[in-house]
Design goal:
Blueprint lengths: L1 E2 L10 E5 L3 E4 L3 E2 L4 E4 H4 L13 E7 L2 E2 L3 H6 L2 E8 L3 E2 L2 E2 L6 E2 L11 E7 L2 E6 L9 E6 L4 E4 L4 E6 L6 E8 L4 E2 L1 H5 L5 E5 L5 E5 L8 E4 L15 H7 L23
Parallel strand pairs: 14-21
Antiparallel strand pairs: 1-2, 2-3, 4-7, 5-6, 6-8, 8-17, 9-10, 11-18, 12-15, 12-17, 13-14, 13-16, 19-20
Length: 264
């Protein structure tokens, strides 16, 4: 097991490890054993389903945080998840998730948003408005250490490790009643735009022909001031400072005006 020192302060005592991928928790922090997502789990959503790559694509620990906050998180229907993506490639594609939409929550009767925060490495949070033949607006949001990216309710999205030479770790606020819908993405054999590396190891995008024609907007993250995001504190520290700040995650209708024509 190789320990990794985070240069970013997530606001609580957690340390990513490699070989195998996972996390170590300080004594005042709760967290589960990781679940592994394997290459065979996501092959059908890749541009090259028969590609080679790391057996474990990423490792995820859902429901972590300070022990003193556990009941508070349960009461507010919030859950904090942490994920490390492997280094390497999936054939010519970067290490990535297959893509999904959040299920409609029984708490709010909405599909719920997600608040990402990159802790190490380089990430791309890809998202599209729909997992139908017409994907609507499509964005590839390029994020580095310390950046926050918010996926709005009902959007299909996938997480990508943009640097094949390094592992990538992020934390995220989620609805405690989280669940995933894969049908639309799997019906189209993946997201509307496939990321892949060319012969010069430059990341490019290829349109998935199973969707109608669309445009891809590549950008850096917005500031999300209307959702209370600040640059100088981690999203866990923001919760600690104001436990109701992220109530829009389990109850997105509280910010329903923000989601209209949302730009991530």
């Amino acid at each position: 097991m190789d320990k990794k020192i985070l240069q970013f302060d997530p606001g609580f005592g957690i340390q990513p490890v490699s070989n195998p991928l996972g996390f170590l928790y300080d004594n005042d922090v709760f967290g589960p054993e990781v679940e592994n997502r394997r290459l065979d789990d996501i092959r059908k959503s890749l541009m090259q389903p028969d590609c080679d790559g790391p057996e474990v694509v990423y490792s995820i620990a859902m429901d972590v945080g300070k022990k003193i906050h556990r009941e508070m998180l349960i009461d507010r229907h919030l859950l904090f998840g942490v994920v490390t993506f492997a280094a390497g490639k999936l054939g010519a594609e970067p290490i990535r998730s297959q893509g999904h939409i959040h299920k409609v929550s029984p708490i709010s009767n909405w599909s719920t948003p997600e608040v990402y925060e990159i802790w190490s490495g380089e990430a791309i949070i890809y998202m599209q408005e729909y997992a139908e033949d017409d994907p609507g607006r499509c964005f590839a949001v390029y994020a580095k250490q310390g950046d926050v990216v918010i996926v709005p309710p009902y959007w299909a999205h996938a997480t990508i490790n943009a640097n094949p030479d390094k592992e990538m770790t992020f934390g995220a606020w989620c609805d405690r009643k989280y669940g995933f819908e894969y049908d639309g993405v799997r019906k189209h054999k993946g997201i509307a735009w496939y990321p892949h590396f060319d012969e010069n190891n430059t990341l490019e995008w290829v349109a998935n022909p199973l969707y109608n024609s669309s445009s891809l907007i590549c950008k850096t993250p917005e500031k999300y001031l209307s959702l209370g995001i600040k640059d100088n504190k981690s999203i866990y520290q923001l919760f600690e400072e104001n436990p109701d700040l992220f109530s829009f995650v389990p109850f997105p209708q509280k910010k329903k005006d923000v989601w209209v024509d949302f730009v991530p």
